[in-house]
Amino acid sequence: MSVNSQTQNQNQSVTSTVEKKQAPNAFVRWMRLLFKSKTGTFGFIIVLAVILVAIFAKFLAPYDPNMINPAAMLKPPVWVEGGSAEHILGTDNLGRDMLSRIIYGSQISLLVGLSAVALAGVIGVFVGLVAGYYGGFVDNVLMRLVDSFLAIPTILFALVILSIFGPSVTTLIVVLGITNWVQYARLVRGEVLSIKEREFVKAAKSIGVRDNKIILKHLLPNVISPFIVISTLSVATTIILEASLSFLGLGIQPPTISWGGILSDGRDYIATSWWLATFPGLAITITVLAIIFLGDWLRDVLDPRSTN
Asked: ABC transmembrane type-1 domain spans which residues (predicted)?
């Protein structure tokens, strides 16, 4: 008994040592692959910076973003003639600090982007798994539902729903979630149609494994990689949709701050005070490009045909 227990302890120690080595090695491998790609590195750094800015906005913003200062109305950026060192990116038509508003605007843009994509992903993955696995009548019904959603322009559908229920952060997240799930459903369904014909799925069916266990333990893990890629790219699209709806006045409402709302406020002054629309536009553009670059890198890394 003592020999057996000693052997078991040795095996456990060896196993734990191997697991500890594998985790850092996996992390190092991912970092190496990331820094091999210039666009991937740029995307990762910018996305990480935006996330940190959103988290620590309270500490980074020099002023209250909604503080009105009539004495500092429409002050240009500090490097422009007439600019003030107190307001690096200038002020808006109410004297509010532009840098502070852009910093706080990152919170809503990320919140809406990530939440809407998470909601759309849950719906789309569920529909895709069920349709692809069961096929037949279930597949036909669910795919016709997908086709009906594809026939409706996303922005038009969002405008109709928001005009009926009224604009708010929660409503916007739900609307963007239920209008973007179809791409996940189509992707997951296509993957499942291929995976369910493989030997390990047929073997699980032959020994009587329940359908829900096959879906969760065999099919779902195999569709995670393409799901992560498309989700990353969808965050960029959702941020643009949120900014577009806020620009039209049906998205985030004051006093809540979003980049689209700041852009909308500055459109009436673009001829005389260019910074009001330029800086939120740059924030949206750079963030979206960074997310796209990061998504492209993820697609290359997670592609099973990749030689990395």
From this structure: 106-295
Mean pLDDT on 1-8 = 45
For residue 267, is pLDDT > 60? yes
Contact between 247 and 231 (Cβ < 8 Å): no
Residues 262 and 286 in one domain: yes
> Interior CA angle at 298 toward 297 and 302, to 5°?
125
Are 133 and 115 within one domain? yes
Quick: pLDDT tens for 226-247.
Answer: 888 888 888 888 888 888 888 8
SS3 of 180, please?
Answer: coil
**pLDDT tens track for 130-186:** 999 888 888 899 999 988 888 888 888 888 888 888 888 888 899 888 888 998 999
First and final C-alpha spacing in the chain: 47
Neighbours of 83 (CB within 10 A): 17
Whether 120 and 246 map to the same domain: the answer is: yes
From CA 253, how far away is CA 239, in angstroms rounded? Answer: 16
Q: State the average pLDDT over residues 202-217.
A: 85
Kindly state the helix (H) or strand (E) to which residue 213 belongs, with its residue range. Answer: helix 211-214
- The 3-state DSSP class for residue 56 equals coil
Residues 90 and 57 in one domain: yes
**52 and 9: one domain?**
no
Residue 69 lies in domain: 45-302
Q: What's the pLDDT tens digit per position in 22-38?
A: 445 766 777 777 778 88
Structure tokens at 136: 């037949």
Contacts (Cβ under 8 Å, ≥6 apart) of 220: 125, 129
H or E stretch including 22?
helix 2-36
The Cα 215–Cα 39 span in angstroms is: 35
What three-state secondary structure class fits 87?
Answer: coil
The DSSP H or E segment spanning 55 is helix 38-55
